[in-house]
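Ticket closed. Logging final result for Uridine diphosphate glucose pyrophosphatase NUDT14.
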Amino acid sequence: MDNITNVTVKPLDRGGKFVTPIRVDYEQDGKAKFWEAVRVSKSVSCVIFNVSRRKFVCVRQFRPAVYVNGADGIAWSEPDVANIGPEISAKSGVTWEFCGGICDKPGLSLEQICVEEVLEETGYAVKAESLVKIGTSRCHVGVAGEAQTVYYVEVTDDMRRGPGGGIDEEMIDVVELGVDEAKSMLGDDTVVAPTDFFWGLSWFFLNKNQA
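Final structure:
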């Protein structure tokens, strides 16, 4: 997963596959302003807790955006151009996450999309009605502001239908995380993870953990 080579960074052509860079012109209290932003799809994420063994089911994957931003100013020759070599460890771009994905399947509800993501990424078969909605928040409010809905679901060993790991060219490791280890991650700024990972753990310890 972390065998990353020949990394380059260049400007994005308009109309990328997953994001669209835009400029927003507007007036605020009569003063003309503008803002640079990107259009992205809304998404879902799911906190999975295996009650058979009292462990969280997490995923780990390489995130290029995390990796290149972690390079700071070392490799950047221009604001949108960089050549990143082996001096930046690829492990810095491997994140802890709960499974999830963008909502790019027309006609499916958020819950149905979440169910598909859980099966594809972790191998667990869950039902939409078993999902507990934690909430919806706005992500990357300075640049995107897309909505992400986070769910919680409990699974057992006998609900595992496959190895998970994603589909197509996805490279995802399924990793179990013990309750005590997960709690120790809260407030640890060395843990490379998105906001919804910490939100999901915090919600669990406030609402579900009775240990």
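DSSP finds four helices and twelve strands in the chain. No further action required.
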